Amino acid sequence: MLEIRLNCENCDKSLPNECDAAMICSYECTFCTDCVASVLENVCPNCGGGFEKRPTRPKAALEKHPPRKDKVLKPIIENSYLKKNCSINPRER
Ligand SMILES: [Zn+2]
Ligand SMILES: [Zn+2]
């Protein structure tokens, strides 16, 4: 099941379930669209993969499967994945 994380892991911007600005990698690392575009260049700093837009969990399902309560916050520092992968299509990394 997809883990809905409510903040950007890099800049801590709020990313509620219904917002349009949340991007996730295949491991559910969650960043805002601004960080994915400008800081990460579509490279996940944790796994090297690309990002897709996070789907919104239907309201009716939130009670049974609520978003994650604690924050994941790990601002980006120098990272070898970013330089190595930013020029490679995410489907071919
Ligand atoms: Zn961000
Ligand atoms: Zn990742």
Mean pLDDT, all residues: 95
* Number of structurally distinct domains: 1
How many helices does DSSP assign?
3
* Helix amount: 10-25%
* Apparent shape: globular
The CATH class label is Alpha Beta
Query: Between the first and last Cα atoms, what is the distance in angstroms?
Result: 24 Å
Secondary structure blueprint with pairings:
Blueprint: E1 22-24, E2 30-32, H1 33-39, E3 52-53, H2 59-62, H3 80-85
This protein binds zinc ion (2 copies).
Describe this structure in words.
This protein has helices at 33-39, 59-62, 80-85; strands spanning 22-24, 30-32, 52-53. The chain is α+β, with helices and mostly antiparallel strands and 93 residues long. It has one domain (1-81): Herpes Virus-1 (2-Layer Sandwich). It has a 3-stranded antiparallel β-sheet with strand order 2-1-3. It is globular. One zinc ion binds at residues 25, 27, 29, 44, 46-47, 49.
Keywords for this structure?
93 residues, alpha+beta, Herpes Virus-1, three-stranded antiparallel beta sheet, 9% strand, binds zinc ion
Brief account:
The protein has 93 residues and is an alpha+beta fold.
